[in-house]
Amino acid sequence: MITKPKGTSDIYGLEAKKRAYVDEILKNVCESYNYNYVETPVFEASELFHRGVGETTDIVSKETYTFLDRGNRSITLRPEGTAGIVRWFIENKLYGNMTEPVKVYYNSKMYRYERPQAGRYREFTQFGIELLGSDDIFADIDVISLVYNTYLLLGLKGVKLSINTLGDKESRENYKKALVDYLKPNIKLLCSDCQKRFNNNPLRILDCKVDIDSDILKNAPSTYDYLNEESKKRYEKIKDYLDLLDINYEEDFSLVRGLDYYDHLIFEVYADVEGLGGIALGGGGRYNNLVETLGGPSVPAVGFAMGYDRTILAMDNSNVNFDIKDEIDVFIMYVSDTEKETASYLTQDLRLNGFITETDMFGKSLKAQFKTVNRINPKYLVILNDKDLKENIVTVKDNLTKEEEKIKITELTSYLFERI
Ligand code: AMP
């Protein structure tokens, strides 16, 4: 038997319905915040992620699905959404004459060659937003407010927002230097990856999944102490606005995020969920240098990506009520060939009027059709018989009260509209 590749899922049945429910909420939130849907290719030139996400990140150095296509081009399945969106932004010259920011969202499959476990897959979905073109802190607030309220609307409890700032270039360089000085005497005690990161990207050491509990990392210098006045002022102002908007947050000065492109504000969202413990749901921040790094002009930007599958897993484990509407409105019952003809056009007609309508597709006896009705539990039955049909009459049965009524076929739609 051919089975699905490790770390992938088939999504169907109730799981698919839960996703449709979550999609609807995400779409509605994005629309009210005026973010437009964007879809970029699943695969891109590998160089995009090498330059955009960073060669030394785990995502690029260990986790990408990269291959040569038949034209000998190096192709990578996207491991995250931002680089592709920035490529799209530059390629379509959307930076020209920017009088409004470009605000987009995506809900797309991502690919990372990771060790699969609960909440960690090789094919997974990220919902994300990007706001390009504004350096104003209102843009940072726009993104955080959307993220925060999305989780409220999804009904997920125990969600925590952690924020930090890396400051501007000068602050980051100062911090990097302090971190290197601090780590130098102890670097041999950290894992081999950290020893490599020490030379080419020391900030990433704070993100190490192996040394996460090491005292060396826990006692590392704090980013806040190396911010210049301007970066500090900016960060404090963002916090004022978060307070003003009743957005709860915690500060975590050890937060750096796993991708290379951030500066100033960075944030992560976690949930405390029974059975899962603390689970990272998503993260984001400001990335003012990425557009330039990928060959565009200098355009400030801020964004966020959330683990969609993990959010649904957290909602499941927290017993969130997914408001799934999958009840069948009407089941049409027939036996003879002439009844079947009427059933066929009535089914189409009711469906086109918006009623979720089903009928028999096996040529079952009436008794067997009643068994089906017991199983799928429609709100109403429409029972056809040749004698009544000669007078254009059908029987409608309320499946809850079991009351039956004979009505004219021409009145069926309005009859059901009044009751469903
Ligand atoms: P990142 O792009 O690494 O910052 O990830 C953002 C969010 O995507 C994480 O917080 C997770 O919720 C989710 N995520 C990242 N990697 C995976 C994965 N392999 N499987 C499922 N979700 C993931």
Describe the structure using short key phrases:
38% helix; elongated; five-stranded mixed β-sheet; Rossmann fold; 15 helices; 420 residues; alpha+beta; 16 strands; binds adenosine monophosphate; BirA Bifunctional Protein, domain 2
What does this structure look like?
This protein is α+β, with helices and mostly antiparallel strands and 420 residues long. It folds into 2 domains: 13-168 and 228-317, BirA Bifunctional Protein, domain 2; 330-419, Rossmann fold (3-Layer(aba) Sandwich), CATH 3.40.50.800. Helices cover 38% and strands 22% of the residues. The protein is built from 15 helices and 16 strands. It has helices at 13-32, 46-54, 58-62, 82-91, 137-154, 169-183, 192-200, 215-218, 229-244, 290-293, 308-317, 337-352, 366-376, 386-389, 412-419; strands at 36-37, 43-45, 65-68, 74-77, 102-111, 123-132, 159-165, 250-251, 263-273, 277-286, 301-307, 330-333, 357-359, 380-383, 393-398, 404-408. The strands form 3 sheets. It has an 8-stranded mixed β-sheet with strand order 1-5-6-11-10-9-7-8. Helix 1 runs antiparallel to helix 5 and helix 5 (137-154) runs parallel beside helix 9. The longest helix has 20 residues, at 13-32. The radius of gyration is 28 Å and the shape is elongated. The protein starts with 12 loop residues before the first helix and ends with a helix. The mean pLDDT is 94. Adenosine monophosphate (AMP) binds next to strand 6, strand 10, strand 11 and helix 11.
- From the helix content, strand content and strand pairing, which structural class follows? alpha+beta
- Count of individual domains: 2
β-strand number: 16
Counted by DSSP, the helix tally is 15
Q: Tell me, what's the shape?
A: elongated
Mean pLDDT: 94
How far apart are the termini?
45 Å
Query: How does the major sheet shape up?
Result: 8 strands, mixed
- Low-pLDDT parts are none
Q: Class of the largest domain in CATH?
A: Alpha Beta
Q: Name the helicity range.
A: 25-40%
Q: What is the CATH-assigned architecture of the largest domain?
A: 2-Layer Sandwich
